[in-house]
Amino acid sequence: MSDEEHQFESKADAGASKTFPQQAGTIRKNGYIVIKNRPCKVVEVSTSKTGKHGHAKCNFVGIDIFNGKKLEDIVPSSHNSDVPHVTRTDYQLLDITEDGFVSLLTDNGDTKDDLRLPTDDALLKQLKDGFAEGKDLIVSVQCAMGEEQICGLKDIGPK
Length: 159
Prior knowledge:
Elements: E1 19-23, E2 32-35, E3 38-47, E4 57-64, E5 70-76, E6 80-84, E7 86-96, E8 101-105, E9 111-116, H1 121-132, E10 135-144, E11 147-158
Antiparallel strand pairs: 1-6, 2-3, 3-4, 4-5, 7-8, 7-10, 8-9, 10-11
Keywords: Hypusine, Initiation factor, Protein biosynthesis
Family: Belongs to the eIF-5A family.
Pfam families: eIF-5a, IF5A-like_N
């Protein structure tokens, strides 16, 4: 054994992963799962009994949280599945540009200009109409696996 003290200096971030493993048998409806490398919200889970090969299987049906596509996956219940880290952040809407991007105000006073308008028609109409009327709007941005998209809108009154 060595009596030396070791000190490690890290100049980078912790390198947080975009996903974390979770046993397939513990993932429930309304949770999240990665299916075919896409972050999905679980809308249906069914578990089969153990067969002659010994594993109960979980059948997951998920909806991609960014494009709304339905994806399915079957995983042995004792195996690990990837679960995405999904975060939701609220920003104040400052401007909508002609090229389809939005300008948002962050909590620390900076602007965030790299987000596109939402693809959901109802949300897009609500956002554009509210902005045109001069309302103060707060947009909710959902982030998972390096992707971001506007997923909600709150009206906090006139400017």
